[in-house]
Amino acid sequence: MKVLAILYNGFNAAVKEPRLLGTVENKINGLHHEDTSSLHRKVSSDKEGPNSDFEKHIVDAEVLITTPFHPGYLTRELIEKAKNLKLCVTAGVGSDHVDLNAAVDHKIQVLEVTGSNVVSVAEHVVMNILTLVRNFIPAHEMIERGDWQVSDVARNAFDLEGKVIGTIGAGRIGYRVLERLVPFDCKEHLYYDYAKLPVEREQAVKARKVDDIEDFVSQCDVVTVNAPLHEGTRGLINEKLLSKFKPGAWLVNTARGAICDADAVAAALKSGQLRGYAGDVWNVQPAPKDHPWRTMKNPLGGGNGMTPHYSGTTLDAQARYAAGTKAILENYFEGREQEPADIIVGVGAWATKSYGQR
Ligand code: NAI
User: Fold this and answer.
1) Which end of the chain has fewer CB within 10 Å, C or N?
2) Which member of 70, 256, 275, 320 is catalytic?
3) Where is each D-isomer specific 2-hydroxyacid dehydrogenase NAD-binding domain found (predicted)?
4) 355 located within any domain
């Protein structure tokens, strides 16, 4: 039996910091399963093109483990070549790197470590919102340059208090973002999601559901994206929808880069239609050096809060998703039932309601 793991290289950092479990060097604890002497493990970061380790080893692997931070993109074409594949495990949350419809068709199960990094991401979202609204990054860069011109940064800095915040997706992360924003005394918390929250959960985070996406974005000063990537969210935030945003709104996306049209976001920031854009997810990962989101700016030269994809891979999160990956593998090898919440695709059927209404 072959287990293939596609992880990112940690290099020297992973040698010096053993808690960087999601790396090729430290191999996620789950790969140390003992009682399977016939297990052949292949761990690599090499994932692009027909000669990559990913494409060479997927053809006879039974289990694929990959992280959303450095995803092996498992297309329908590759699934059709992967004759032995039975289980894909996402070490983290978000399994859109697998063609999930093809996994259903080919009876390949897809599991993730549900909940493992939702607090990590929610904290990052709150940080991104504050960073943009308060114009923090240009202010810090000014200090590093040796300058001191308060008016240049204060002219685009605001309070979060009194603003309207909206989340696209009010699941585990979106809800936790609203929970964490309660003490900021925002004017309103809105959410756009086909799944309605129970009234007491709405009241606990002062949330109001808005059913029409254009109506929703037109009311928000800050929009945060917390829905999975699927057919219903790919390219959702495009030129047309951006034109319905409040002029000068802030947009934070830590869900998946491809939910936003990259060029349309860069153009909206350049024109000032968006005052800021922040997040850690990109439509291609690693992002090419010339990706417009690396350097895009608003008309005042700020408004860019982009980082590499790391909000859900803090050392605390890595401990949790490594333990969760190990548990999923042990359940699989020992024929035990999996945690229902971890199952995205069961054998031949969708098991989650989070990837669109079907
Ligand atoms: P969840 O499954 O708890 O919640 C997702 C919510 O989105 C659900 O309430 C669902 O109904 C809603 N939704 C789905 N399609 C929608 C649509 N078209 N419009 C509005 N709402 C929609 O998932 P969780 O744990 O909150 O994670 C959400 C996503 O965040 C993941 O799928 C992943 O893509 C991303 N993520 C990013 C991380 C990072 O490191 N940047 C780490 C963890 C997750």
Assistant:
1) C
2) 256
3) 127-310
4) no
Residue 248 lies in a domain: yes
Domain that holds residue 95: 2-116+313-345
Yes or no: say if 93 and 312 are a contact pair by the CB < 8 Å rule.
yes
Is 309 a known active-site residue? yes
Domains of the chain: total: 2
Environment class of 341 (CB within 10 Å of its CB; exposed 0-12, middle 13-18, buried 19+): middle
Same domain? For 214 and 280 the reply is: yes
pLDDT in tens, 135-177: 999 999 999 999 999 999 999 999 999 999 999 999 999 999 9
C-beta of 227 in contact with ligand 1 (< 6 A)? yes
Within 13 Å and on the Cβ side, how many CA atoms surround 303?
Answer: 27
DSSP letter string, 36-58: -TT-EEEEES--SSTTSHHHHHG
What is the rounded distance in angstroms from the CA atom of residue 73 to the CA atom of residue 90? 12
Torsion of CA 170, 309, 265, 240, to 10 degrees: -40
ipTM > 0.90? Answer: yes
- pTM summary value: 0.97
How far apart CA 88 and CA 68 sit, in angstroms, is 12
**Which CATH number goes with the domain that contains 192?**
3.40.50.720
Catalytic-role residue among 117, 273, 298, 304: 117
Nearest alpha carbon to residue 188 among 210, 169, 172, 171? 210
